[in-house]
Amino acid sequence: MNKNFNWYKYNAKYYDQIDADGIPYDAIADTLTKIFRKNNVKTIVDLGCGTGNFYIPLAKQGFDLLGIDISADMLKIAKRKIIKNKLKPNLILSDIRDVITEKFDAAICLYNVIGDINYHDFSIVIKNMIDSIKSDGIICFDVINFENVKTFEFDNKYFIEKEFKSDKLHRLSRRTKQKLNKQDQTLEINQSVIIDGKLDKNTSNNKMYLYTLDQVTKLIESFGLRTKLMYGSYDNKHGIVSFKNNDPIIGVIAQKI
Ligand SMILES: C[S@@+](CC[C@H](N)C(=O)[O-])C[C@H]1O[C@@H](n2cnc3c(N)ncnc32)[C@H](O)[C@@H]1O
Fold this sequence. Notes:
Number of strands: 14
CATH architecture of the largest domain: 3-Layer(aba) Sandwich
InterPro entries: Methyltransf_25 (IPR041698), SAM-dependent_MTases_sf (IPR029063)
Strand order of the largest sheet: 4-3-2-5-6-14-12-13
GO molecular function: methyltransferase activity
Largest sheet: 8 strands, mixed
Keywords: Methyltransferase, Transferase
Pfam families: Methyltransf_25 (PF13649)
Distance between the termini: 54 Å
Protein name: Methyltransferase domain protein
Number of domains: 2
Bound molecules: S-adenosylmethionine
Low-confidence stretches: none
């Protein structure tokens, strides 16, 4: 029987090869490291740490991290990678909408974790991040910019994504169908992997929440955060690139005051 899976249940094992492909995690972590060092950050909570792509380069820089994720499948991969890098896996399976009891110097929630979270819960996550850090602590989060996404055509028809870097054993691609709901600012995504040219009969479904600059700005203001930097894209040279209207990402680095 063909099955329709929750997105991370289905995609965790492909995540690093497909979704994280081309994201300059090390360069972004270097930029964050400079900001963290200037602000005496030593401990970081990584909300939605996934497979550890920010956890690992930041732990290598000497920060103490706690990674939180709701997906046991993603955490299993994170643990394996962290140990392989000779670092200490400090990971918990939890929902980032729940209160975080420990205190940290910084809280990060990066690479569209908030895409899995509706506007009401977005505000809860930001509150949890703020409550989990000391005063003067730093919070970093990003969302996908609705204003950017709505400029693309979404015909709800299947298309085949480009082939992703081989893991040496298999060639991976993906069949994807996307539907944009402008009213509720969500993107419905249906995907199946194509392994060595063969389409998997199972599929995954996801609803991605998109946000506007106005919504993000209102949240920052309502929590009285001091914005240090807003970014709109990534590159290998700078890690993060300053925000310009309609950029794909709305990234925020802010300080609790
Ligand atoms: C797009 S991935 C990003 C992972 C990682 N930060 C990275 O940069 O590669 C989003 C992650 O957020 C996690 N996530 C989504 N909703 C969550 C929630 N309510 N509580 C905890 N983790 C959540 C997912 O399981 C997934 O691992």
